Each structure stands twice: as structure tokens, then as C-alpha cells.
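Friendly challenge for the regulars: who can give me the C-alpha cells for this chain first? No prize, just bragging rights.
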Amino acid sequence: MSIGNAEEPVKRRPVSKKPLAAAKPPGDAVLPVRSDERPFIIGIGASAGGLEALRLLLPSLPKNLGLTYVVVQHLSPTYRSMMAQLLGRETTMLVRDIEDGMLPEANTVYITPPNRNLTLQAGHFRLVEPTKESMPKPSVNRFFASLAEEIGESTIGIILSGTGSDGAAGIHAIKAAGGFTFSQDPETAKYSGMPQSAIDTGSVDWILPPETMGAEISLIVLNRGLIPVATQAASAPATLKTLLGKVRSRTKVDFSQYKEPTLWRRIERRMAANHVSTLQDYLKVVDDTPVELDRLCKDILISVTAFFRDSDAFARLEKVIGDILANKQPGDDIRIWTAGCATGEEAYSLAILFSERLGASFDQYRLQIFATDIDLDAMALARRGVFAASSLAHMDRNRIRTHFTPHGDRYEINKNLRDVVIFARQDLVQDPPFLRLDLISCRNVLIYFQSELQARLLSVFHYALNPGAYLFLGKSEGIFQQEALFGVVDKEGRLYRRHGIAARLPLPRTEMPLAAAGLNQHQRPAKPTTPLGFENILLEAAGRYFIPTSILVNSKFEVRHIHGDASRLLNVSPGKPAFDLISLIRRELRTEVQVLMRQVQVKQTVAHGRPRHIKALDPNRGIRLSVHPVLAPGNEALFMVCIEWIAASAGKNSTDDSNNVTDKELEDELAATREHLQTLVEELETSNEEMQALNEEIQASNEEMQASNEELEASNEELQSTNEELATVNEELQIKTAETQELNIELECIQNSVDYPLMVLDQNSALQRFNSAAARLFRLGEPQIGRHLRDLALPDMPDLVTDSQKVIDTQNALDRQIVNANRRHYALHIAPLLRTSQRSAGAILLFADNTNLYEIERSARETQVRLLAVMNNSVSLMAVKDASGRYQFVNPKFEQTFGFAAGWVIGKTDLQLFPDAVSKIFRESELEAMRLRQEIEGEETLPLTSGNHHFLAVRFPLFDHDGAITGLCFQATDISARKRAEESLRLAAMVFDRASEGVLVTDTEQRILTVNDAFTTLTGFTRQEVIGKKPSLLRSEKTPPELYVEMWDRVNRLGVWQGEIWNRRKNGETFLEWLSINTVKDKSGKIVNYVGMFSDITKVRESQQRVEYLATHDELTGLPNRALFNDRLHLALARAERSRESIGVVFIDLDNFKVVNDTLGHATGDKLLKQAAMRLLDCVRAEDTVARLGGDEFVVLLGTADRHKATLTAERLLSALSTSYQFDEHECFISASIGLSMFPEDAADASALMRNADSAMYRAKDHGKNAFRFFTADLAHQATRRLALETGLRRAIENGELFIHYQPQVNLENQRVVGAEALLRWQYNGEVVDPVVFIPVAEQSSLIVSIDEWVLGEVCRQIDQWNKAGLPAVRISVNISARHFRKEGMAADLMQIVNAHRVSPQQLCIEITEGVLMDFERAQRMLAELVAFGLVISIDDFGTGFSSLSYLKRFPIHELKIARSFVDGISSNADDRAIGSAIIALARHLGMSVVAEGVELTDQHVELDASGCHNGQGYLYSRPLPPDDFAQWLRERNLP
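First reply, four minutes later:
Bragging rights claimed.
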């Protein structure tokens, strides 16, 4: 809440030396002293620089007024505070560290520990662990706020030097609670941040240097009990009303309806600040210093406000805001009034709530927040919208980031919120309100007003609010004065809602209780219409019809209220207007009213007057007055004057006479006067009786004082006798004193003759005496006699209290060295001072200045330490021997070089430490140095275990005072590294001269200093030709000048440059070189040389360009390779997609190219590929791309081509490729298979286009070759099927889907089983896939290798199982694919599988196709290894592939298998019979066996047997069988 802002601080006000006002106020203003006064607690906040300020403050603080001091200084959380010890030297009060739960004690200084916040709760100190937020610890704000809340007016807050703004909010809280506030003058503070922040709040009472604050605090404390509480009557001369009138006249602020206790607390505070104790004296102060009225006004208008003060209430308010916004539409007005806004925090809090509630639609509503206050200074701060960080400490961090902009340690409200808040000055008591409001927030304002003003303001709020609008009050406020006007929305949140009935604005109260007493009822301003309950309606009706006209007045006849029509009785007299009842009522009734009032005041009962008939009022009726005492809730005495109209007595009416007063009226007035006189007589008699009683009391007191006087005279006689005795004793004492003085003078002379400072302490460590040396050193004088050693503050000396007390307690002398702040050294001797009874009476302190001796000793020690440090840290070996050759000292380098442990050498000789050769060298050199009695120097090579080491050694003898040699010093430097470096330099020079790269060295002016031989070789310039010249003589025109600028810029900035550059040889030839330039710098970092190294990379660049070309082109044909083709394909697809055009991919495979390559040789094959590439280029457009993918595969990219153009291109390609090729004497014919796929019909991406074209090409091959095919949906289905099969095959082995059947092979002659062929089967998705389907897929995807190895392993496992079961041994044939044969190490893999199952190789036969034999060298090597291992080799489907009789002769083949296609017609077709017979005859002549496949008919069996075929295999004998069925069939078939 706020009802104004804090007062402006009194700038640098000097401490007043005026004595306190009279302790007892005058009799007419006696005020009882309050009984609830609590002792002051003084909080002292400081930060950086605070210790210096505290040392100035503490000595000046009052030490015996029962005050408690608490120091809250920011400290490091990990620092162990020494504040208690440091500050204990500055004061005689007890200095203690605070512990949790400790009770404050009087005349004690408490220190807050680090990393803990301090609060005062229920009279106890409480230490609280701080939160993790980055706030100063301990928090001054938090402690000051707890003091303000706990003890209020008994708080004094002091802010000393420090950075930041901590303590500013706490100072404001203390001022608001009625306490006193001090701040260090920023000009005297080491850091002015905290003092200035406190001053900026406007809540600081005194701005003083620390050393003067104590005097002001003493005056405040001493004056406190002398300022009385206001209980004086309102009619006294120096009244509260008088003071408030003066305030109103100067400041235009009316405090007359504020609660008097609040006003008195503020007035008493100002009285204490001005050092006066009575209201009369304070009135004199304000008369002499009118500005004090401004200060009092601002003191009353203290701001107590904060952002979201009482967070629970604001949380409840958020729901009400939601209800307000629920009835609003974008563009509507939202009007809020914050009454008593102070510095604006509450108004901005409401703006933040509305902003958060509206969110992004905030700007769509016309939000207006009227923030008003009576204090212009407060509103000036509010308008700025800038707040200290401490003001926002309790707010949510996210809310601060959203609505505030940080500026250093202050935060500014965002502009969008500032624009909706309108600040204006308004006096709630007098000024009209804002209208059509949705919400009024008047928090903690009404509590300062009297009930009457509270009720009127609630009526004003009711008038200003819209029907159903809301009122938001403080937690200590309510609507009990006007409960009929508002309904309760949230009692805990103090939220109320206006009842929806009409209202009129109540008129403000003025200083004239009755504006015009003579006005008729209808002429007076109408009272505001307020809603009445039935009870009020009843009471109003009863009053209107039954209660006579009545006037409510106070004891001064001031009219408070009028009931009924009193216009005929009251009128305003001419002249200066007066509005008390005596002045307003008719002259005829004035005396009677005064008499009746006096009777009521004396008797406290109802007084009735006589019936009166005043014809001027009413000719027919008379009146009778009566006065009733009224009980009032306040201190004001009220009386009700009732006017009763009565009927006049018959016959008593007087005749109307307009000019004369009737006798009856004169009689009535005379009777009234008599009554008045009688009353005065009675009062006078009462006063006489009281005076008589007082006179008797005075006489009794006089008699008592007379008796006391007689007693005092007797006592005086006794004192005179005593005085005579004392005079005699005094003479004797003076004699003794004179003797003592003489002894004391002698003792002082003896003390002063001692040149050492001497001090004598008593048993309490208080100074008793000192000599002149001590006075000079410690600046002691007579005022210091009797002071405790701790309070002497000996300049620059350490603490001596502990040592002195130890000597006094133990009676043992103590000696030690001490050093003062000026680095003077003293030998301190403390001896006990003993009485004759050997009891300690104190201590004697003697200080002997031995600084010079200490300096000499220190210098010697330092010299020794330096010498030892030099020797220990020297890079040279150093040693000292005695005359007998034993080592007395060696440095660490000596021990490290020779590998000795630390200290092990001392006391030993060279013979004990080194080999004979080394010790001999040492001994000879030492004897020479001792013989010559001078140093000798030379290089020595020592044969050590780690090899020969070279040393530069120096030896010289050591002499004593008599010139005798006492020892020898040895110093050596290991120059082994230098020797190696010299050797390295020689080697480097050789490398420099013989390096293959050119090297030149220049100075900083780029003049060539030297070059190597490679430089001459590469450039043609000799060394003599280039020395002294610049490298620019090599420059060629191919290198742009910008490159040289960049090169030297980089060299000078980074010290290095590398790059390619074109230079010119001596013969004018240009060459590309790789150049590296480096800088050579001296120890200071300055460039002294440039070194350039270069090599000729002309040929390297040509090779690089060749490599780059080969990376994207086919080396043989010069066509783009796969990488470049894919890049162009992606570009073409992107272009076609943008332009919505079609492109085509043509996949070309040369038919029977392998035949040409194998028969005519690879060279001919290469020529054919080149010619084919040329023909392809001739058949396509320039924008099309022809690429070779590898082998005999080509691909063409047709840009912007539809299906028709692609067809024409494919026809041209087939025609061009099918014509004859000429190679010297050879002529060849080949064809091509072409597949085409189109974008976007067939695919949308590059990989799919290539894959589809490849599928179409294979379709062309399947249909007889020399053709082209477009990709179709059927091919897509086949591709999908193929992909599914390939995917399934990859998991077939691990899923156990593959299995083997065995088809027997029988001897055609005797029908006995000679072997079997292992046939692979695949169970996939519930069906068995034909090998003809999945074997080609496996071969094309490289899965065939793993399948072959699995089949061989499974067959070996089965053979091993059959062998163990005793089955007759038969040979099992296993097929190995041609693709498997192309794998390196295939033979070794097969043999490893066989060996792993421990199966005899003779039980296996490896079946291969004729395609395996096409790669002659590989096949010959592989087959030789397999046959050597013991395996049998068989050629499957012999005659269907590329057959060569020379291959049969050159390869180790054991068996030929006749293909099924020949066996099918061998009994009926002459050609098949001839081929079969030829194969059988060929095998017989080559020593090979023959197996016929696919024998299904008996005729075929007979014909084969007749032709000499050895074995047969087919359904005629048995279909393929599972392993168990085959084993059973074999047993049955081979039974004897």
C-alpha cells in the first residue's frame, strides 16, 4: 500500500549539541509515558570497505544505554571471518559471533557469520541458509525487514560503505515502521554504492560520517523516554489540531481524519529527530523552521509498497482478472484505478497480470490503469519505471526477464506496460474519483483513516465502479463500514464486488460542519442515497416521526449533526461567520443552552429546560430544550440538544407587538439568567471548597518541611564535628602525599632515563605508568592512565593483551620478538609486577628496539639463502671439498648428473664415489689448483656409465684469514649438448648444401645471404650471382602481383607461408614450384631472417591433372566413368523435373565380347572397346552422355528424349555396333543387348532408372541378344520378385530354410551305387523354391559363395554322420559356382571346411562348369591345389558352354558329366547320340570317367551303356532323396 512517498533525507545534517528539553512537560500538557517501549536494536549493514567504516563507527557508539548492535557485512561464503576479533579492538563492549536462537543482549555487538542470512523472530536471532540465487550474503535487506516487522519503532538502521544496493529496501522498511535510519556520507565512503542506494530511496534520516553517528544515536535514545504520548485535550493551546492545521496550510494535505495513534507516532518521531520532548516545543520548531512541516508531512506519507505484495492475494486476484476479461471483447476498454500507488509497484504488478493473462492479444484491448497518489515525488519515481534489483529479489526470474530490461543493477519496466499506466496526483479526501471502472485497488490505505472517512471512501469507490465491478483491499482492511454496498468475492484475498444499485457521489467533508444552518431542508445538499437494510429503514422512519428536532454537538458546541428541520432555530449572524451552536441558535435560547450544557457536563445526566413561547418562531406553539449526554466511540464528548414543540397555554398568548419585547419574554430571560448565575455560584463554591482543601494540604506539607529542616540542622552539627576530624587526617595525608610525590618523581626520573619504552599495567591490564620513551613511541599522555591495554590502540603494534594477561595470571616472565606495522622489530620483555606478599599486582612491559641487529642478521641470512639458492638452482655442477678431499657441499645438479641420492655424497672422497679414471682426473686437477693457489679452467671428458660426458670445469682453492688453504671449490658446466650441437651444426650444413630442395636465406630487407647447391640446380643461378640480390630476380609474369602482396602479408603476420608459385629459371624457362617461407626471430621476437625452401612440382602438377581426369573418365576409351555419369544423371533429373521433360537411360552390353577377348587376346578386346565407344558417340547427340561402366557395359543418357526418340537411338546403336570390326588381319562381328528406361514413366530417381535399364537389358539378352527392350511393369514385378528372393536368401542359412537332397549315381553295368550328387533346396514362405529360380539370384548377388561353403560343410557333416553309422562309403558331388572360383583363397577355404569335419577328400567330388576354365591361370592354380588335396574334379553339363579340348588336356579333370539336353534324345536323335558318343569317347581316351545326367528311360540307359558310359544319374534310378531316405535306399541297394 501507499499513501505517499518517503521524505527527502536531511542532507549531511550536523549532530545537534543542544541539550535535551525539560524532562518533565509543563503541567498543562502532562502526557503519560508509554509502558510498551522496547530496547533499541541497531542494525549495521556494510560490504566492501565496511571494515574501515566500522572501525570509525564503533568507538563513537554509546556503550551503556542498553543498546544491541548487529553487524551484517557481506562476506565470502568460504571465508573464516575474523570480524569479531578485529572489531573487538575498537570498543570495550562485548563482540560476539551470532549463533542460531541467541537472545539479543544489551551493550553487545553481534557479528553475522558468513554464508548465512540473519532474521529476528520472536525476540531470537535466527540463522537461515540462503538460497542458491546470486544475492549478497548475509542479506542486509532481509535482516532490516525482520527488525522492522518484529520491533518496529525500536529499530535503528545504519548503512555503511559497500557496493551494490543491498540494504536500500531494508532502510525503507525501517522508516515505514517508524524506526530511525542513518547512511554514511557517500563522500566519506570507500565504496558509495550501498549508501547512495539507501539515500535514493528517500528514507534516510541522517547522512553522516561514521564517527559522528554515535552522538546522534545517543540523543535519540536518551530523548525517547521523555517524549509523552498524546493524551491532551483537544482544547489545549498546543493541540494536534493546531499542528495538523499548520501542516494543511503549508502542504495542502489534510490529515485531520487520519487515525490519531498513527499521527502521534510520526509526530513523536519528528520530535525525537529535532531533540524536543513536548508538543509546545515542537510547535516552536515548526514555527521557526517551516520546512519541518514538509518533513512531517512526508514522514506521515510513508510508502509501504512492493511488487506483488502479499502474493497469495494477487494469486486470488488472477481469477478475478479472468472474470473481468471474460466479459470483454477485443477493442473494449478495461479501466483500473490504483488509489495510493506510491512508487508504482502495485500498478505495474496489475499491468503484468493483465499482460500475462491476455498474452499475444494484449495490444487488442484498451487497458488503462489510473495510478494516483498525493505525493508528487513518489509519482516521479513511478513514472520513471526504474527499480533497484533488491525490489525485484522476491519475483520469479522468468517474470523479470519477460517484463523488465536490465540496466546495470537496476531494472526498467518494459514500454508496453509503462504506456498503459497513467499517473496523476489525487487527494482521496477531496478530489473526485475516476468513473466507469472495472477494478479498484486500494490496498493498505484505509487502515490509516478514521471510520467516518473509511465509510465515505467506500461510498466513493462504490460510485466509481461499474455495476458488478471489483474492489481489491489490503489484508488488514474490510468493508464493515459499508457492508450494504459490496458483496464478498474472496474474504481471504479481500476481494469484493459492487452491488448493482444506483449510487450518488458523496460530498467531501469540509472544515464547516454545516454549510449554512439557515437553509431549508430542500435547499441543503442532498445526502447520498445509500442502500438501507430493513432495520435502517425502520430506524429512519421512527426518527422522522417520533424523534424531535435534535442537534448533536461536542463540548465546544461544534455542530456534528442535525436531525429534523432546525432552520427556524438556527441562523447565521452578520460579520465573520461562526458555525458553533451558540453562534447559530437564536439569541433567546443561547443562555439556556449554555446552562443546560453545563449541568449535563457536571452531573452527566439529562437536563431539561423550561417551556418557552417565542411568538417570532410560532405564535401557536412553544418549545422546550433538553440536553442529553451521548456515548461516543472516540475520545470526543458529544451531547444531543433536543427541541420539543409544545402547545401554548390558553389565554397566555401575547398580543402581537412588532417593536417591543413582551413582559413574558423578559421574565423568561431573567429567569434563565438567574439559573445561569445560580450555576456559576455553585461552581464558585465548589472551587472555593477545593481551594480550601488544597490550602490545608499545603499547610500540612509546610509543617512536615519545618520538621525536616530541624533534622537537617542537627545533621549539620554532626557533619561539622566530622569535618574537624577529617581536617586533622588530611594534614597527615598531605605529608604522606608529599613524600609519595617525591618518590614518584624519583621513579619517573629513573624510568625516563631508560631509553627503552616501559609500561606498567595493573592486574586488570589497565595502564598505571609509562616512561617518556613509551610516550614518544605510543603517543601516550595522562588521559590514557587507567585505560585498558586493549583500549589504548597502541599505534602499529600487535595485540599485547593476551601475553600480558598470561604473565599476570602465571607470574612468569615472557620474552618474544614483535614487529609493528612500520616493520620495526622489538624484543618484548614482560615481567610480573609483584607485591610484598608475592601476589601479582600487574605486569611490566619493556620494549627494546633491535631493528638494526635484526636487519643485519636478516641481511646475512638472506645473503646465505640467495647464495644457496643460486648454487642449488644453478645449471652448473658445484661442489666444495675440504683440504683432505672430502665433500662438504654439492648442489642438486651435481647429484643429478652423476646419479647420486640427495645428501649421499657429503663426507665422501672421489675414490669412494667415482671410478678410478674419473677420480684420477679430479685429483690431478685439484692438486694443480692448490699448487698454483689460483683457479684453473679447462675441458674434461669423463668416462661415465652413460657414456662420455664433456665438461668445462673450473677449480679454485679456498683460504682462511691466515692465507692457509682450507678447501677447494669445483664448478663445471656440462657441454656435452654443446658438443652434440656443434656436430649437429656441421651435419646441418652438409644437409643444407646437399638437400634436393632449393634453399635461400635473406635478411629483413629480402637480400639473399646464402643459397644451397639445389638452388643452383633448379634455377641455373650460381651462389655468386644471387648473393646480395632479392628473390624477385626469379619472378615470372605468370604469378599475379596480388599473390605476392598476400604472401608477404601472411609471412609478416603469421611467420609462415606455403603455396604454389610460377618462377623463372636463368634460361628464361618458367616452372611451377612449391614454396615455403618461414621467418627466423631473435629472443625478443623480432624477425631477423627469412628462409625459403622450394621444389619443382611442374611434373607433379601434370600427374595430378592426369589423376583428376582418370577419376572421372575411363582410361581406355576416354568416356565418362560411372561417377561422372551418375553426377550428370542427377543433374539431368533435376532439370527434367523442373521443366517436366522426359529423359532416357540406355544400358548397353556387348554380346560375346568375352569370346573375342579370350580368343584374340586382351589387346584386341581393348581395340574393339575403343571402336565401340567411337560408334556410340557417333550415334547420339552432343547433349547426350555416353559412359563406360566397366568391362563390356556402356550406358547412354538421353536428355530431353521421349520414347520415340529413344527407340530411334536404340536402333541406331544396334546397327552401328553390329557392323564388322577390323583388327589388322582379323575381322570380328559382335552385337549388343540394349535396355531402356524412361523418366518419369519408369522411375523417379537415378538408381531406379539404372536398375530398370539393366533389367530391360537382361530381358533383351534372354530373348536372343542383338535387340533392345524397354522396361515394363512385368520387369518391375520380376525385379521385385528377385529382390524378395535375394533378401530371403540372405537370411535363409541362419533361419534354417536351406536343406540338401541326394540323387544317387549308379554304375550302368552292374546297377551298384557309386556316388550321389548333393542338390540344394530352399523352403521359403511355405513353398519350395526351384533351384533354377534362386541359384541365378544367388550368383548375381555374391550370396553363392556363402551358400557353396554352407553346402560343402553340410555335406561333410552328413558324410561324417554316415561314416559313423557304418553306411557304405560313396562319393558325394558338390557344385561350386564359377563366381566362387573367382574369389581369392577359394581352394584354401574349401580345404579348411573339409578338414574341419575330418572327412576324407576322396569321398568328395567338386563339380564345376566350363565357365570356370575361361580364366585359365586362376583355374589351373585352384584346381591344382584341390587335386593335390585329394578332391575329385568333375565338369558339369559338358558341351553346353565354351568347350576347348586343349583345356581338358591342360587341367586336372577326373570326370565329365553329359548334360540332360543331350541325354533326352540319345535314344531317338542321331545328333544327340553322336554328341554323347563323342563325349564318351573323348573321356575314355583322356582317362576320365563319364556320368550321364537326367536318365529317365530304359532306352536311354541301354544306349548309354552300349556307348561305354560308366555311370548314370536320373529318375530312372531314384529321384533326389532326403539324407535319411538316401541312407535307407543305399543300404537296401547295396545289400549282397
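The longest helix spans residues 663-753. Residues 572 and 584 are 6 Å apart (CA to CA). Your move, everyone else.
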